[in-house]
Amino acid sequence: MITERPIRVLIIDDSALFRRFLAQGIKSDPEFELVGTAANAEQARQFIGIRRPDVISLDIEMPQMDGLTFLKEEISKDPIPTVIVSSQTSNGARATIEALQAGAVDVLPKPQMVAGQDIAGITSQIRVSLKAARHAHIQSVGDPKPAQRHTMSTANRPTAPANAYSSNPSQNARWVFAIGASTGGVQALGTLLALLPADAPPTVVVQHMPEGFTNAFARRLNDMCQVEVREAQHGDMLRQGLVLLAPGGERHMVVRPSPNGLCVVLNEGEPVCYSRPSVDVMFASVANYAAPNVTGALLTGMGRDGAQSLGMIRRVGGRTFAQDEASSVVWGMPAAAWEAGSAESLVSLNNMAGVMMSSIGIAPPPLPEENIFSRPLRKGI
């Protein structure tokens, strides 16, 4: 029997207390091997040169060279899957979003190391994220992978290729896009949403992200998209050309009817698929109140969140797509949707916006008569 070797971890953080606490958590898990702990970028370089880790836990706010600069100048050249463990200050949140766009795999909130905080629970979450990061599909700068990662410059809003989509404004207004993503979703959403035209259908998005980071992400997306993007607030109305991003934290985002049309409601509730907000919860609400005039898309991410309720959208006549393996950072959620028969097609990230726009007003293909719950995987379109 061949046993997989432990995952080699390097912790980079300027807090000696946090380094010590996380190191204890890493050492307590037999699936990990601690390569070392570094207080700054120079120490990290030395560790990487002596014994290359499989994954890195990286703080953003550090003296001398900050984590974002280290990620861009060092790790991006010879990629090592990196999980950002960051404070939730406004500056920390903005830098963390930029780090995710630069290639970091995931982000988790940094515990404040005060009495009453579930520090053990947070370090457990970090271990789960590091295990997933080991298998992430990452690339070095310039690597011609099928779906190039979006750098998301805020200098100018992009323009979709002329005649890229057949856009009918009145028809778009009566349609709804619903999108779910997790690990790798920051880059994926940057690519997809930047290609939507300004008159795209009302869009709701759940991206797994800690509380305190989603507002910075929405603002960043708004700077580089033709559509308006903002963090959703309770009671926001869905309207054409607007993308509402579920806020991270303790509430789920659902779609509900109101006298003036569809709106979003933020409800407290237990996690679903270990997630809150949950893609499954949002997709189920869209299936109930927007179908059949809805297109659902499940993007890169770990786990199964969204796979079941994407199937609900399909069964009530909506259009459903999942990101293909080649362009996903972690092919977990889209794979689960495909294997369950919830997605009608696998689509590469670069083609997703066009496929979604082309689905507006078009009836889905009939459900196959054979058992789609155990169908083989195939390449995306």
TrEMBL record:
Xref: SMART domains: REC
Stretch list, region Disordered: 139-167
Domain annotation Response regulatory: ranges: 8-125
Transmembrane segments: none
Coiled coil: none
GO CC aspect terms: cytoplasm
Top-level taxon of the source organism: Bacteria
Record-annotated CheB-type methylesterase domain positions: 169-363
Protein location: Cytoplasm
BP-aspect Gene Ontology terms: chemotaxis
Role of this protein: Involved in chemotaxis. Part of a chemotaxis signal transduction system that modulates chemotaxis in response to various stimuli. Catalyzes the demethylation of specific methylglutamate residues introduced into the chemoreceptors (methyl-accepting chemotaxis proteins or MCP) by CheR. Also mediates the irreversible deamidation of specific glutamine residues to glutamic acid.
Domain comment as written in the entry: Contains a C-terminal catalytic domain, and an N-terminal region which modulates catalytic activity.
Entry protein name: Protein-glutamate methylesterase/protein-glutamine glutaminase
